[in-house]
Amino acid sequence: MKVEIRLGTVRYPFRLGTDCLGTIVEDLVDLSASRLLIVCDSNTGPLFGAELVERLSPRVPANLLIHRAGEPYKDLQAVGTLAESALRLGADRACVVVAVGGGVIGNIAGLMAALLFRGIRLVHIPTSLIAMSDSVLSLKQAVNASAGKNLIGTFYPPECVLADAAMLRSLPFRETVSGLCEVVKNSLAVRPSMVEMLRASLRRDGNYDNETMYRIISESILAKASVTIDDMHECRAGLVLEYGHTVGHAIEYTAAGEISHGQAIGLGMLVAAEVSRRLGHLDDETVALHRELLARAGAAVTVPAHVDLDEVMHRLRFDNKRGYLSDLAESSAMVLLRGLGEPLWHDGRPLVPVPMKLIGEVIGELARPELPGLGLSRSTGAEKVPDAVGATDG
Questions:
Q1: pLDDT tens digits along 190-230
Q2: What span, in angstroms and rounded, lies between the C-alpha atoms of 337 and 321?
Q3: Roughly what angle, to the nearest 10 degrees, separates helices 284-296 and 261-278?
Q4: Tens digits of per-residue pLDDT, 103-141?
Q5: Where are the domains of the chain?
Q6: Other C-beta atoms lying within 10 Å of the C-beta of residue 131
Q7: How far apart are CA 106 and CA 375, in angstroms?
């Protein structure tokens, strides 16, 4: 499969195959780079990076740069350390940075490529489902700050994406579930036609054949491309891809690596769905569908007890969508739905201000499922909150 990813004026090829490492090597050699900088983490380095360098080295200079795995190490220090290593190895403007890994390494290597010599070529070889189906379909390259996730970065396009679905066989269950949570997000927020396919395909045990995984990735590519084609910076229609991310990022950051990105986004979607229901925009059936699809994917649907909810609420104040809306006060900007694939719009964006008090109540109930509230019918006694966001349909 070869598709052209179109993000505004930017175009780049996405090649997806199975057991195609040989073809990936040929594609990398064809770039005529002065040096290939293969950037991996401590997991993907031994799994894929070392073999890539071994195959490439007889034909083109290639070096393996390894960074410690994990979201807590996705910061400017990582970018600086890798860039200094690359320069010591003789990196120049004709080098190519090759990001081999999931979303974390993709972001670190992407920002490194954007900064070295004010921009050198970048290639993504995604090795996780979340990277293949979501993160490499974007120009966003960002790392975390002490205040929150993805607050330091830029927009930078890759030369190409080279994906081998066989690499997904090495994924632990946690990372498979993480990627599927983002796939569920694409279905609920952007491409409802995926719902029945996911109902039939999702497995709680995380075991998928090549054909099913190929179909899931292909559908996610189509979903994401449909809202970014005219919004390369994802600040208008593309903001719908932030569904679940406002609360999800806060949970992920607070959990300090103990909850995967996709799982945190899944919890964020459950909060967003219930918030929308209480504001009178979303019906009970659609809220229940959120829980159903996430559960079918093997994801948890409650916030773990060890997550500090006060810290989650604090992190909401540093969400990377701050500044898009001017009337936040004691509110936070969230993507909300009024139906499958139908976001609420406010001031020209699919983003609405939601009272922090309401968000806190819903997060609290998600952490204490024995209480009446999230995902249950209105007959449980959950009080409907007056609509205070001034959102519009469309």
A1: 999 999 999 999 999 999 998 899 899 989 988 988 999 88
A2: 17
A3: 170
A4: 999 999 999 999 999 999 999 999 999 999 889 999 999
A5: 2-170, 177-380
A6: 28
A7: 35
Model-level pTM? Answer: 0.87
User: pLDDT category, 329, cuts 50, 70, 90?
Assistant: confident
Catalytic residues: 140, 242
CB atoms within 10 A of CB 356: 16
**Close Cβ partners of 326 (under 8 Å, ≥ 6 residues apart):** 347
CATH superfamily membership of 177-380: Dehydroquinate synthase-like - alpha domain (1.20.1090.10)
Please indicate whether the domains covering 2-170 and 177-380 agree at the CATH topology level: no
Smallest Cα–Cα separation from 363: which of 355, 374, 379, 372?
A: 374
Kindly state the tokens that stand for 38.
Answer: 């293969």
Domain 2-170 has CATH 3.30.470.30: no
The one-letter code for the residue type at 325 is: L
The tally of CA atoms less than 13 A away on the side-chain side of residue 266 is: 30
Place of tokens 């009272």: 355
pLDDT computed for residue 186 by the predictor: 96
Give residues with Cβ within 8 angstroms of 381, minimum separation 6: 372
Tokens of 268: 């964020």
Q: What are 294's two structure tokens?
A: 């996430």
Q: What is the mean pLDDT of residues 50-74?
A: 96
